[in-house]
Design brief:
alpha+beta; 5-stranded antiparallel beta sheet; 16 strands; elongated
Amino acid sequence: MSKKLLSGLIIFSTLAGIIGGFINWTVSDLPNIKLLEEYAPMESSRVYSSDGKVLAELYVERRTFIPSYNIPDFVKKAFISVEDERFYYHPGVDFIGIMRALWKDIKAGGIVEGGSTITQQLARLLFLQPDKSIKRKIKEAALSIKIEQRYTKDEILGMYLNQAYFGTRAYGIEAASQTYFGKTTKDVTLAEAALLASMPKAPSVYSPFRNPEKARDRRTTVLQQMLNQKFITEEQFRQAKQEPLPETPHFRKYDAPYFIEALRQVLETKYGKGLYTDGYKIYSTVNSAMQQAAEEAVRKGAANVEKRTKPGIEGALLAVDLRTGQIKAMVGGVDFWKNQFNRATQALRQPGSAFKPFVYITALENGMTSEQMISDTPISFPGARSGQTWRPKNYDGQYHGSVTLKTAMAKSLNVAAIRLAANTGVENIIAMAKKLGIQSTLQPYLPLAIGASDVTLMDMVTAYAAFATGMRTKPQFYEKVIDRDGIVIQETAIEQEKVLSEKAVNEMKILLRAVVEEGTARKARELKRDLYGKTGTTNDYTDAWFVGFDDRLVVGVWVGRDNHHPIGARQTGSSAALPIWIEFMKRVPQQILADQNP
């Protein structure tokens, strides 16, 4: 053997060893593809109403997993035709495709065609960083071969289609179908399947919303490939080419937005980031028809008040099932998409006379009855500053002498309520309010009796539910949570505590019934059923309230302005809040029955 040949063999052997060593080093730390057996891509969680409608999706990546067997065959063929036409014949790496792509690149004098198979793209999406190094390409090829050895072609294609990014914040083919066409994958047309197959290569470039001409050309390319491979006929090709492109994305402006945001905050404390990635099914307590009725009632009521005053009116409504504490409807404002501040749960406002029942229930629990007398005559107390005197007055400036508690409540007499509070003790009233569910700070002064301390609508509704049942019931936002495997991982239970005697409850119902029958809420009589409740109006008509209940539901309504300016002259709880309450309650009975007996 000549020295020249020997030297060449040594150099070749050295290079082969170096290359072999490099390859061996490169693949020595490959990820364990057994992890695919536990494949669980980030998946949106869905919130359902109590009557089974999807209210919202919660996600980081909008994705809904769909099994490969639920993906139509022509959809799969659209992707294979343009991404990997030899998909069913290669072992994970298409060596024929690589050589063909290399030849085209040489002829073009640059890179015009890639050689990555669908399996390689899946390996890259799941396990590798998106760099262009030789090391990554070797790992990608090695992983692809291993994946092909362990999984069927259909399983691989399904994982790829669930993982790929399609642009417009859509991850996976099911989310893409919903985003681009507003339908599920199994319902897409041939043209729509071809458009979806166009997207993964360059989602922003081929977006029909950004570049419709490029999207149409790319879709035609996919259809032509399908025709060339005899996946479709000439007639199907011609018809699909003529189908129009989608013009706007189908983003979900989720329903019951104030409720969903409040629910999201509750669930996030329990499930953390998994709430947006683990594909939970959350069955909420809201009834979709009741929610729609509540939103329409608030919008209509606020608009009617604005006709009498000026723009800027806000409103809130909260409806809760008396027996379970389940929130059936929540409206935190006129338009969530303009202002996300939730006036049902976050706004601290003075309740005015709607707070008076707390004074009366304290007296009733201390042995008084609805027929006992209280004096409604002028009274004065030392003011906040030395030498000052506070002389409370009734709304109309008149006094009624000695009246029953029932009459005092029905006519919403300020002086009688304040005298009763003085006799009962402010600290006792505060203790009672806290016991019934008021969580905000209450000021320990006599003006508290006529609603001078801020509260939330949620607190007021919770407490009024106790007037109806004698039980303090914790508000419930959801019934159960199911994971992506269909396993129930949480079910909520009714949380109740007896806080009032049966006698006091019966007496309180007499008082609150009188408000509807002969007092400030007489308008509610048009509903023609047994109702109980109390209006509330603050100084200068800044806040208007009505909180009331029937035998199934407790509902609270607040109306006002966010800047705490007056609503308008003589805009009381009776004229501003009560009409919203009545409008909502008109549509409730049948919906409650439908909701409770699906």
